[in-house]
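Contributing: when you submit paired examples, paste them exactly as shown. First protein:
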Amino acid sequence: MQYLPRLRRPSAAASRGQAMVELALVFPLFVMLLFGIITLGIGVFYSQQVTNAAREAARFASIHSATASRPTVSWLNPTSPPLSYNRYDRPESSWPYMTPAGRRLLFGINATAVNVAA
């Protein structure tokens, strides 16, 4: 009959050490993944906020077009006959009506850091 050595079960101290080593190997990867997801989410949020501000500014400019009493005009000067209306929302004065229309719905972003151009 052949003698088989008896396998010893690891002690509680050895299994605690094993768990700590596994945690030390996996935890940094988990933290990097978590912070990566958070950073990506913040980036998408800011992108959506700026897109919404541009959409609102474009909507304001289209509603207050050349047929309105206070039109929003672009940098481009028409080569046709002289303007038949008064330009209230001028690019030279940073579009004083269109810019706040685009900035008013910003949340979580410094509104003065967002520039509006037509």
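Second protein:
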Amino acid sequence: MNGSLTPELEAIVRREVESGQYSSASEVIRDALRVWHSARPKPSGTPTLRALLRGANEQVDRGEAIPYTLELRKRLSAEARILAESGEELDPDAAL
């Protein structure tokens, strides 16, 4: 994919590379896009934290909860590592 930048944006990218913080212009652009994407508002209809917690509490009340044990944490971490190594994008809320 190719694109064009205004002279002002090109100067910003060049300064970031020259500062040594980034090794290439592509790296600056990728990082900027990641930050932009993560800062964007979530689409309407995305469940709120309160709604998610309410749903989780209802599952606990129905006896559908799975105890969070050390063994479960290890299994989930191993699965996340396999996904990460395969190049699959992980949920940023999931920890390895």
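If you have annotations for the second protein, write them as plain sentences, like these:
The two ends are 31 Å apart (CA to CA).
The helical segments are 7-18, 25-39, 49-61, 70-85.
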